[in-house]
Amino acid sequence: MKRDEAPQDNIAMYHGGRKALYAVADEGKFEITQSSGWSVEEMATLQAVDEFERLEREAYREFSEGKNSPLGVWMYRRRMSIATLSQCSDFWQWSINRHLKPDVFKRLSPKKIALYCDVFDITAAELFNPKEPK
Predict the structure, then answer these.
(1) 56 assigned to some structural domain
(2) Is 75 domain-assigned?
(3) Are residues 22 and 58 in the same domain?
(4) Sequential DSSP letters for the chain
(5) 7-27: per-residue pLDDT in tens?
(6) Structural domain range at position 71
(7) Full-prediction pTM beyond 0.90?
């Protein structure tokens, strides 16, 4: 995109701020320019946030019913997928899938619990007892 084509839709999620984008200057070289956002970007981001909130509510319901561990609640609350959590925790994705099972989660070592707590930036008490989503 050219420098003068950078989106300037003043999207609400930027709260009046701007972000840097690379654009082509008049001389044909790349340079950094500012954008106040793009309405399409805002719509896609809001849809993604809505989906994570839906997944969090569903994970909490399943946790409350004893069908899932609290790990799923925290994963979605922190806007993570299994792949993202795997990258952040160094657990294999198949391990995380196992840890989502309540009986497996209850047997996790203190070291593994501490690792999840570090990733989510919470205490062990919070990990085991997530609050109901809003």
Answers:
(1) yes
(2) yes
(3) no
(4) -BGGGS-B---GGGTT--EEEEEE-TTS-EEEEEE-B-HHHHHHHHHHHHHHHHHHHHHHHHHHTTSS-THHHHHHHTT--HHHHHHHH---HHHHHHHTSHHHHHT--HHHHHHHHHHHT--HHHHHSPPPP-
(5) 888 888 888 899 898 999 888
(6) 47-128
(7) no
